[in-house]
């Protein structure tokens, strides 16, 4: 399954640059190991997308309710991110 998710600019940048390899999310989509995430860069002030996104596979899921993670949330370990920039198409 592929999950399309808005990702605020500051967190997207850390993923894009390879500094961040996980996502903390509300567990409202039945995320499972092996699912793919399309993390779309989103400007929450302008309410718009940049055209950049990252596709990554969920390789680990830590469910909330323990280790200081609120129940109903999860930490998703990500692997093999592929970077896309629709602004570069046709250049």
Largest sheet: 5 strands, mixed
Mean pLDDT metric: 93
Q: Work out the count of structural domains.
A: 1
Dominant shape: globular
CA radius of gyration: 14 Å
H-E string: EHEEEE
The side-by-side strand order for the widest beta sheet comes to 1-3-4-5-2
Which segments are poorly predicted (pLDDT under 50) over 5 or more consecutive residues? none
CATH topology name, in short, is Archaeosine Trna-guanine Transglycosylase, Chain: A, domain 4
CATH architectural name: Roll
Structural class: mainly beta
Strand content: over 45%
Number of strands: 5
- Give the oligomer, counting copies of the same chain as homo and different chains as hetero: single chain
- The total count of helices amounts to 1
CATH superfamily: Hypothetical protein
End-to-end Cα distance, whole Å, is 31 Å
Helicity level: under 10%
By CATH reckoning, the class would read: Mainly Beta
Report on this structure.
This protein is mainly beta and about 90 residues long. It has a single domain (about 1-90), classed as Hypothetical protein (Archaeosine Trna-guanine Transglycosylase, Chain: A, domain 4, Roll). It contains 1 helix and 5 strands. It has a 5-stranded mixed sheet. A hairpin with a 4-residue loop joins β3 and β4. The radius of gyration is 14 Å and the shape is globular.
């Amino acid at each position: 399954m592929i999950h399309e998710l808005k990702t605020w600019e500051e967190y997207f940048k850390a993923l894009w640059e390879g500094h961040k390899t996980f996502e903390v999310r509300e567990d409202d989509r039945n995320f499972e190991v092996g699912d793919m995430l399309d993390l779309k860069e989103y400007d929450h002030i302008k309410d718009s997308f940049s055209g950049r996104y990252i596709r990554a596979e969920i390789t680990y899921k830590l469910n909330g309710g323990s280790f200081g993670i609120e129940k109903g949330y999860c930490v998703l370990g990500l692997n093999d991110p592929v970077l896309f920039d629709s602004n570069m198409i046709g250049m």
